[in-house]
Design brief:
The complex is a heterodimer.
Chain A: E1 3-11, E2 21-29, H1 35-45, E3 65-68, E4 71-74, E5 86-90, E6 97-99, E7 102-103, H2 106-114, H3 141-149, H4 157-161, H5 163-167, H6 174-184, H7 194-197, H8 212-216, H9 223-231
Parallel strand pairs in A: 1-5
Antiparallel strand pairs in A: 1-2, 3-4, 3-5, 6-7
Helix pairs in contact in A: 2-6, 3-6, 6-9
Chain B: E1 6-15, H1 19-31, E2 37-40, E3 58-59, H2 68-78, H3 85-104, E4 120-121, E5 131-132, H4 138-150, E6 156-158, E7 161-168, E8 175-182, E9 188-198, H5 219-226, E10 231-232, E11 237-244, H6 259-263, E12 266-268, H7 276-279, H8 289-304, E13 311-314, H9 320-326, H10 328-336, E14 346-355, E15 358-360, E16 372-374, E17 379-380, H11 392-410, H12 421-436, H13 443-457, E18 461-462, H14 464-481, H15 494-518, E19 527-528, H16 536-539, E20 541-546, E21 549-554
Helix pairs in contact in B: 1-4, 1-11, 2-3, 3-11, 5-15, 13-14, 13-15, 14-15
The chains are: A alpha+beta, B alpha/beta.
């Protein structure tokens, strides 16, 4: 079984190209090939200068997020047999391009950092022995909400798909706010001011509830739901 | 034209951003916040490497009915008594505290029992259900949360930067740092450090079917070997029995987690027989990975495999709802390539998964080279001839933490060393050479060849003539690597990176084959069809490779001997 698939790839090298350009490649697609497999086929046998990012190839690391036929997804998780004979591939939006399909994730992680994404326990220092773990009721609704939010793999798909991010450069974006919610809903966390820090127009109240973040998330996370829970004060500090 | 390099000095240089690298950074920083710590990641920090890919979980004796002694005995029994027992003891005795740290300082969400305590599930080869987990995708949560902790600390992170070589000190006193290549810009940095930690991951990518992330190619072993370190047990390559078969996609070889077998899934041959009955009727599918993988391989070799060359894992009798709820990540992975794990069998193949061998260390992660620490898969000895499921992420976190403590306590005692300048120049020249070659070899083709040779001739079952043949081919491939070419552009050049990768991959494959040829017995993951018996009289020794020499040293049976009774 072999099918020909044509890739239209938006290519751009910021240090030499005035603007991005479309390049077209045709490959013999093999059984179960993903978009990532197709990109490797091009790199290995047709054009050794093609740029993209990869690591795990199994949907776990979030390195290969890109726009595939106009929609954000992980290249390793989209099978060519589910697409047409022509596939259009572009880099994520709202992020600078390093080379072709690889974007610079720095703005994404700078905003992530702004929500203080780190857990603060009773004894935060690794220089100290650990206390006994708390008992945590797994059926508690807030734990279940947080448990869903932590599935984020920080791939940037939601950031690219969010119209508020592209319109308002200061907006923290779905992934960062989702992380803030996961911590605010964590009964073990001792940083009790989290909610106040993400409630401004750059935070939860900047969201316009479009919901692209939910529909594109390859990890099944619903950042919009987390943002709405933040707005309603559904956190440990408030309960 | 040699582009030169800039210089960076630090106290603690950490090469690798998996569990070992991140735990080392956090421990060293908190013990001494004045230290200048630099973490170098081949991909994006937090995304690269394999701790993130851990699915099943983390073994720790937390339950009062369990004990570190039982965990220890399971570990060395599973390891065919080849383990460095001091390292195995460090693993099991630190594991509970490390779990508590991950839970209370890092905020990792571990699954709970209804009473609110940490849940522990069944894995293979264990006398107690001691595997702590977060669903069936445990590693994502551990590494994501460790990554978050970096944001609370002043630690320098170098994304998409690879280490090219360890650089010796000018006066010969150990390691002075490493030469780095920033893949985005193509710029080089000479990083000088009081202490350097190697934590890059192992070499299973040398096989046609393998589990690790694509960029993980045994860089640490190759650099350590070239720097003159002592590598031990390199013949010990673990094959996981259930790598998914996904057509021609590079998803093939990714593991379907061990908890499936732990929960009672069957392994079937193409005739629908539970073939483990033939090989280990007592433990069946819950036998250790070495035994199950080899059994599956023999079934396939004897013509009872599927048309695609695999066997089948079937969890459907456990109930579709149970499977969907307990293994959502696995169900989804299978569904993407056309299998319904909840209702029917999935085609799987043994897949190269973990390299037990590595750089010889002591229980503080020190090596024979002053200024060089090694932790995680890059280190050898913890697991002996076979690693138990759930002991891998435990090793990364336990020994990463130990390396961080060692660095914090010792690195200020060691002065920054002047570098061996010719070594820096040689490393630069070697790295740059492919860019100016014309009409050279395609490095991807050489990678494919290495993977086929190793799979066929130094694979699950090996013999002397096969290994000898592979060694000849690998020598030829090493020469061909030296003729590889890449487009002449240093910025984000994946072809160039592949040349650098395959150079290391061939080096590590050669070490693996050489060590495999030397061990003329069958033990753990090392199966020789020409020497099918385990021979404790002759082979209770570790094989070492250093500076082109191969030598043996007896296993120090400091805590238990092969005939010891299982602790109650």
């Amino acid at each position: 079984m072999s099918l020909r698939t044509t890739f239209r790839i938006l290519r751009y090298d910021p240090s030499t190209d005035a603007r991005p350009r479309w390049a077209t490649y045709t490959i013999e697609s093999k059984p179960k090939f993903s978009v990532l497999d197709g990109l490797f086929a091009i790199l290995e046998t047709q054009d050794g200068t093609l740029g993209f990012r990869y690591s795990c190839r199994a949907g776990m690391c979030g390195s290969c997020a890109m726009r595939i036929n106009g929609r954000e997804n992980l290249a390793c998780r989209v099978r060519l047999e589910n697409l047409g004979s022509t596939v259009t591939v572009e880099p994520l939006r709202s992020l600078p391009i390093v080379k072709d399909l690889a974007t610079d994730m720095t703005p994404f992680f700078e905003k992530y950092r702004k929500v203080d994404p780190f857990f603060v326990g009773d004894s935060p220092s690794f220089a100290e022995p650990a206390p006994e773990p708390l008992r945590v009721d797994p059926s508690r609704p807030l734990r279940q909400d947080a448990n869903r939010a932590i599935d984020c793999i920080s791939c940037g798909a939601c950031y690219s798909a969010c119209p508020t991010v592209s319109a308002n450069p200061a907006y923290l974006g779905p992934a960062a706010l989702n992380r803030a919610f996961a911590l605010a809903a964590d009964e073990r966390d001792r940083d009790v001011d989290r909610l106040a820090r993400v409630s401004g127009p750059e935070g939860a109240y900047g969201c316009r509830s479009v919901g692209n973040c939910v529909s594109v998330c390859p990890a099944g996370v619903a950042p919009l739901a987390a943002i709405q829970l933040l707005r309603r004060g559904k956190t440990v500090g408030a309960s | 034209m040699n582009p030169g390099y800039d210089e960076l000095t630090c106290d603690f240089l950490i090469i690798g951003s998996g569990g070992a690298g991140l735990m080392a950074a956090l421990h060293a920083y908190d013990l001494n916040p004045k230290l200048k710590i630099v973490v170098v990641a081949k991909g994006l920090v937090g995304k690269s490497g394999c701790t993130r890919l851990v699915q099943g979980g983390f073994n720790a004796a937390l339950d009062p009915k369990d004990s570190v002694e039982k965990h220890f005995f399971d570990t060395i029994k599973g390891g065919g008594f080849l383990n460095n027992q001091d390292l195995a003891w460090a693993l099991v005795s630190d594991a509970p505290e490390i779990i508590r740290k991950l839970e209370t300082k890092v905020g990792v969400f571990f699954d709970r029992r209804p009473d609110g305590t940490i849940h522990q599930k069944a894995f293979a080869g264990q006398s107690f259900d001691r595997t702590v987990h977060r669903g069936d995708l445990t590693g994502i949560e551990i590494v994501s949360r460790l990554h978050d902790q970096l944001f609370a600390r002043n630690i320098m992170l170098l994304d998409e930067t690879r280490a090219l070589e360890l650089i010796p000190a000018q006066n010969g006193d150990g390691i002075a740092g490493a030469l780095l290549l920033h893949q985005r810009t193509g710029a080089f940095t000479l990083a000088r450090a009081r202490t350097t930690l190697l934590a890059t991951g192992g070499g299973p990518r040398m096989y046609k079917f393998s589990a690790p992330s694509i960029e993980k190619v045994g860089d640490g072993y190759a650099m350590a070997y070239r720097a003159g370190c002592d590598l031990v047990d390199m013949e010990m390559m673990q094959f996981h029995p259930t790598g998914i078969l996904a057509g021609a996609s590079r998803l093939s070889g990714m593991v379907l987690e061990e908890g499936l077998r732990g929960a009672g899934a069957y392994l079937l041959n193409a005739n629908g027989e539970r073939f483990m009955q033939r090989y280990d009727p007592e433990r069946m599918e819950r036998a250790t990975r070495d035994v199950v993988s080899r059994s599956a391989y023999l079934e396939i070799m004897e013509g009872r495999g599927t048309p695609a060359g695999g066997v089948l894992i079937d969890a459907s009798h456990l109930g579709a709802d149970f499977v969907a709820k307990t293994f959502p990540g696995m169900v989804r992975r299978c569904a993407e390539v056309g299998y319904d794990l909840t209702r029917g069998p999935v085609e799987v193949t043994p897949t190269a998964h973990f390299h037990m061998g590595g750089v010889a260390i002591d229980d503080r992660c020190c090596t024979s080279k002053p200024g060089l620490l090694v932790a995680g898969e890059d280190a050898g000895g913890v697991h002996g001839a076979n690693r138990l499921g759930g002991n891998g992420v435990a090793e990364s976190c336990v020994f990463g933490a130990r390396a961080g403590v060692t660095a914090a306590h010792t690195c200020t005692e060691r002065a920054l060393q002047a570098v061996d300048a010719p070594a820096v120049e040689a490393a630069l020249d070697a790295a740059l050479a492919p860019l100016t070659r014309e009409g050279g070899e395609n490095p991807f083709a050489i990678r494919d060849r290495v993977q086929t040779v190793m799979w066929e001739d130094v694979g699950l079952v090996r013999n002397g003539p096969q290994i000898a043949r592979a060694r000849v081919t690998l020598d030829e491939l090493a020469e061909r690597v030296a003729t590889c070419a890449a487009p002449n552009e240093r910025r984000w050049n994946l072809t160039w990176q592949q040349v650098l990768d395959v150079r290391n991959l061939v080096t590590v494959a050669s070490l693996t084959a050489r060590s495999a040829e030397h061990r003329t017995e069958t033990r753990g993951s090392h199966a020789r069809s020409d020497y099918p018996k385990r021979d404790d009289e002759r082979w209770l020794v570790n094989i070492h490779l250093q500076e082109d020499r191969i030598f043996e040293a007896p296993v120090a049976l400091t805590r238990a001997k092969p005939d010891a009774a299982v602790p109650a």
